[in-house]
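Q: For a teaching session next week I want to show students how multiple molecules come together into a single three-dimensional assembly. I've collected the sequence lines for a complex. Could you give me the predicted structure tokens for the whole thing so I can convert them for display?
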Amino acid sequence: MNFWVMLLIRVGLTLAIMLPIALVVIFGELKISAHMQSRIGPYFAGGRFGWAQPLADGLKFLQKEDLVPGEADRTVYKLAPYVVLMGTLATFVIIPISPDLVVRNLDLGVFYLLAVSSLSTLGVLMAGWSSANKYSLMGGLRAAAQLIAYELPLVLAAIGVAIQAGSLSLNDIVTAQASWQWFDAAPTWLNGIISPFMILQIVGLTIFLVASLAELSRIPFDMPIAESELTMGYLTEYSGMRFTMFFLGEYAGLVAMAAVAATLFLGGYWFPWVGDDALNFLGPFVLLSKVMLIAFLFIWLRWTFPRLREDQLQTIAWKWLIPAGLINILVTAFFKVVF
Amino acid sequence: MTTIDPRAAMHLADAAVSIELETPDMTLNIGPQHPSTHGVLRLVAQVDGERVNSVEPVIGYMHRGYEKLAEVRTYPQITALTNRIDWVSGFANEVPFVGAIEKLLDIEVPERAQYIRLILTELARISTHLVFASSYPLELGASTPLMHVMREREHVLELLESVTGGRFHPNFNRVGGVKPAAGGGSTMKKLSQDLPAGFLAATEAAMQNVMDVCDDVDRLVTGNELFLARTVGVGVIPAAKAFEYGVTGPNLRASGVKYDLRKVESLLPYDDFDFEIPVGLNGDCFDRFVVRVQEIRQSVAIVRQAIAKIPAGPLRAKVPRILKVPQGEVYVRAENPKGEMGYYIISEGGRIPYRLKIRSASFSNLSILPWVLEGALIPDLVAILGSLDFALGDVDR
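A: Of course. Below is the structure for the complete assembly, covering every listed component.
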């Protein structure tokens, strides 16, 4: 009984905290893209700065008819958005928010993370297949091809971090970054320098960010949606509530990926020269600002670049990212063993 | 002698064939309602996965029967139709049409009117190419250039509006010259009010903005690695093929052919100006993009020179109130922003033409689609389609 109540509270809290953050990122995207394009962006909703625009959009979508194409596979079609959202939200469970605050501290954290984050692609494939629309189908297949190409670099980048930290648990990875130690037996002067993995694992960080862009289907890797090619890809037939789910899932996924990257590479909730007691209070804000930093990077890239082609994406993944990831692992392991 | 059971042999042959999965082509209807067909073009594509095996363009969704409509309208009335053919460059469509009538009537257009026509044609060209420079990156997924370029295009449209009163459909040309400018009063009485006050200064300012935004485009788009990856070597049209299909305009020049009607034969005094004809090297999507951006710069140069030496004088030759065109045939063509645009008029005398044939650039440019899209990937299909820069109104008329 107690276990289930606690679980419910934790899941509820995760939803209650993470979904508003996704809304903030949506608002950020609206505003930042507007300013990049010499527009003003949302202005009226909510009174000031149009802060309520994502809410207003969501409410509008809820009022729209929930269309299901006649030829569609109804069950799969209706289920798909929730699979996408679920896969994304499940990621939040293991993100340490402060030294003491984490929904579940899994020993196999990184492993769980990578397994769960690929679930949402399953939802995308379901959506593409069940829509009974050729554009949707192509979008779904592109998403599947993209998943195969980009799970690997993602995993390889994370393995580098796991080797360096000596653990797969996200809490331990954060602690390792907070330890001020580059390697166990590194010279003392070196160990006095702050050491988030973004410095030592810079290759890993780059691979991870590129791969997560592809995983999130954002420009320059938004081929599964590719508005000008496939109208809206797997989203073509969706409307109303279910479209909102996809939309929310997309941004929740962005927040999740940013949170994972922040935890793995930027030190998560940890901030130098702040003690553990203070971090219990400040940790969430530190993590949030790191998440926002990465989210800003994603938004910035999206509104700057054109879209790549599917075959070019595969080339980047297989010819560049995966070899680079393997070399990164080798070098990391070498230093780990030598020192 | 061993005999082979024919049925077993067939079975074996079947087995050999079925090792390769039989995947029939999928028919994909691209358009008429599709984000990248710029209106109502429909492409019936046979695709094998992402690869396009063949494409059949289906046009006519925007056929408005202008050639037929022209047969029941007086010549001045038809001018209003012509600027709706390629709505993006409305003004440039009018000029060859009134030029054709002037040729039939043997009217000498006053020099100032010719200069005004030339300036406004070049402004229309700048505006058209700016639309291309803004929308083409959008086809490739980059949405930011759209806003920056459209903002400067707005200044150009404002210039057009200040003179003609219309942004897209100026309807400003008259047989024998141009209309008195908006708010300018009657031409005959007030010669000084032909161009609105401050027009020349405003044009200079707008031209500077256009040049700046061209530099922005070069920085944001042309040099972008991802843009290069998507466009270089994609949709190559060799010059010989371009000739075969009657491709004209920037699409032809991107294939390396230095052919511009402004230099060859022109109604307007282009000989008075110094300008280059930018040409491409390979005839791929990238060249078509770069050629157009370069053409904007050349047009700016022309406009600047024209402002500097626009002569004074009347705006319109003496033309009878009721225009009666003598019997005869005439074909007049001009370099439209999208390519060669021509009007073939058959007159049997009187106020309305017997027949009007419009040779529009986009129609001929599109005819190369089945050839150039064969074997392309779907993302390349979008890139190639966009790079040909057509307006559906110009295709269907």
